[in-house]
Every structure is written in structure tokens, then in C-alpha cells.
Amino acid sequence: MTTETKQTLTTQQVADRFNALAQKEMWFEIQDELFADNVRSVEPADSPYFKDAQGKSAVRKKGEDWVARVQEVHKLSTTTPIVGGNHFAVGREVDITVEGHGKVVINQIMLYEVKDGRIVLEQFTY
């Protein structure tokens, strides 16, 4: 009889892995590796760019649709995560040109909730 133990990542471990990938702008890899199947993505109520999404595939599509509309990247940066309990937050600056919106500069706080070693919520404030 073999007992296989799979260790659940802590919030700090998820945040550290998130940071390693975010610094390389590997956002779809973050989704694939760290997001729970039932992840929720929450935007500000008055966002002119996005609507909320529920579920890993819907969140993925939201990101793919946005990336497809980016015409030029001027600056992208993400701060090191700050961890508190089962949450972590990063600051993100995006300066891009987007089809239908022109030049867009977003300075935001991105808040993530971790449960059972996976991100179950991403919430954007800008």
C-alpha cells in the first residue's frame, strides 16, 4: 500500500509563485497553474474595460479577449506581493494602447484570495 501525500501550497507559496510568473508577464501560466476551477474575477462596477467572470475558462477568455485588443505595450510592472492571512495583494501599472480605447494607463491594486492552495478570487481596484 502506497500513501501519496500532496502538499497544499500556503498563501505565501502561492504568492511567491505568482510573483515569479508575474515578473515575466506569464499571466496565462498563473491562471493555469494557480487558479481554482471555480475562480471569480471581480472588476470595479464602473469598469469601461471588463465585466466580472466566474470559472477558470470564463476568466481565461476574459484575458484572451483583452490581450487580442492590445495594439502596443508601453510599460508593464507588478510589485512584490504583500501577504495577509489567506490573501495577497500586488500593485500593477499598465500603460498600453488598446483597440477601441486608445492609450490606457491603469494603476491598480490586485487582491487575491487563496483557499486550499489555489486562487479562488481575483479582485481589481482602479
Word description of this protein:
- The protein is an alpha+beta fold.
- The protein contains three helices and seven strands, in the order H-H-E-E-H-E-E-E-E-E.
- Strands 1, 2, 3, 4, 5, 6 and 7 form a seven-stranded mixed sheet that branches.
- A hairpin with a 3-residue loop joins strand 5 (87-98) and strand 6.
- The longest helix is centred in the middle third of the chain and has 14 residues, at 56-69.
Short description:
With 126 residues, the protein is α+β, with helices and mostly antiparallel strands. It contains 3 helices and 7 strands.
Task: Tell me the layout of helices and strands.
Blueprint: H1 11-22, H2 27-34, E1 35-42, E2 53-54, H3 56-69, E3 70-78, E4 82-84, E5 87-98, E6 102-115, E7 118-125
Parallel strand pairs: 1-7
Antiparallel strand pairs: 1-2, 3-5, 4-5, 5-6, 6-7
Helix pairs in contact: 1-2
- The total count of strands amounts to 7
Helix share bin = 25-40%
Q: What portion of the residues fall into strands of 2 or more residues?
A: 35-45%
Q: Number of helical segments? A: 3
Instruction: Determine the N-to-C terminus distance.
Output: 53 Å
Mean pLDDT: 95
SSE sequence, one letter per element: HHEEHEEEEE
Output the radius of gyration.
15 Å
Q: Please, how many domains?
A: 1
The secondary-structure class comes to: alpha+beta
CATH topology: Nuclear Transport Factor 2, Chain: A
- The unreliable regions are none
Report the top-level CATH class. Alpha Beta
Please state the second-level CATH architecture. Answer: Roll
What general outline do the C-alpha atoms trace?
globular
Largest sheet: 7 strands, mixed
InterPro entries: NTF2-like_dom_sf, SnoaL_5
Protein name: Nuclear transport factor 2 family protein
Pfam family, one: SnoaL_5
Organism: Chryseolinea lacunae
